Amino acid sequence: MGGVTSSMAAKFAFFPPSPPSYKLNTDDPIGLITLTNFPHRENVEILRLPTRRGNEIVAIYVRHPMATSTLLYSHGNAADIGQMYELFIELSIHLRVNLMGYDYSGYGQSTGKPSEQNTYADIEAAYKCLEESYGAKQENVILYGQSVGSGPTLDLAARLPLLRAAVLHSPILSGLRVMYPVKRTYWFDIYKNIDKIPLVNCPVLIIHGTSDEVVDCSHGKQLWELCREKYEPLWLKGGNHCDLELYPEYIKHLRKFISTVEKPPSQRINSRRSTDQSEQSRRSTDCLEVSRKSTDHRREKPRQSTDRHDKLKIPGHKSSNLDKLEKLRISFDQMEKSRKSVDCFEKSRKSVDHQLDRARKSVDRLDRVRAGLLVEIADMKNEGGLLQRCEHFSLICALYGKDKQ
């Protein structure tokens, strides 16, 4: 399956210059290798390096006498070290670093065919040469990957826990994501940088042009969000895919980054905090108006509080005390009204009790009247029919529900 993936990738991802931009010249007596069309320099060496996959790649090493860091540069697509030669010299001078660049398998005068797995073996061979031939230590090495070169750069960076730093120049999220905005990683995708960058422990600088028509700037921004140790990114306004080195900000920002990562870790932490603050300031610029209004509001509150404080301090100012006395007077008035209301309720309760007492006495009198009438009725019955002649008979029957007899 890996072979199928590599062959698919080779058709779409790799475009080595044809013909190569240089040829190799070898001086037989001393074995000195030089590039055609470029004069020999004392501080420049051309090397042939074997890889673990059986290929032989061509590399260039540029030495700087004041260097404390070594930059391992993985170039972009459709380029070789002949085209990159002058840039390598300039970067070494301006950044004060040793620099090694190399051609991938199948590029320039390197043997083999270009593939994802071959590029991983190629950068490993270059890094091994730095350690064994030039005494470079992991903590002094800075990996630099441009475009497709971000693939082998991040693959190696994820496996070097003590690496000094990494630079990603117009990087890709993955090979497939350059062509299609897929949301997941597929088995046939190549250079899965989106999955590897969270594994990188060192500071990472990302440089991308906002007008890149080959690899959209969103690739660089998403990779920056996924970095574990972020450094202030460089988004070059109007920059395209292959012209970022022409911007003055490019070398200036790169020099600042190298200077920062060469500092001791304690000082580097302070620089990273400054970087985080710069990024927050950049984001807050998008909502500057909201922040301004919020600031005005916060300023207004202390001013009003100060005004109140000043009023209390003025000897002749009694409005605050008068307000308090007025509130107390209103409170006493309300209490008085409440008391009067209670008194009224008490009087009403006594009136109700009095009326109930009168009603009870009336019921008692009615009971006495009824008892007397019953006695009178009984007497009438005993008198043998005098009840029918009683002129109050109807009233008595109505009162006691008696039927006429």
Automatic annotation (TrEMBL):
**Positions of region (Disordered):** 265-318
Q: Which stretches are annotated as coiled coil?
A: none
User: Which Pfam families did the record assign?
Assistant: Hydrolase_4
> What InterPro entries does the database record attribute to this sequence?
AB_hydrolase_fold, Hydrolase_4
What superkingdom heads the lineage? Eukaryota
Ranges for domain Serine aminopeptidase S33: 70-175
UniProt biased composition (Basic and acidic residues): 273-313
Which protein is depicted? Serine aminopeptidase S33 domain-containing protein
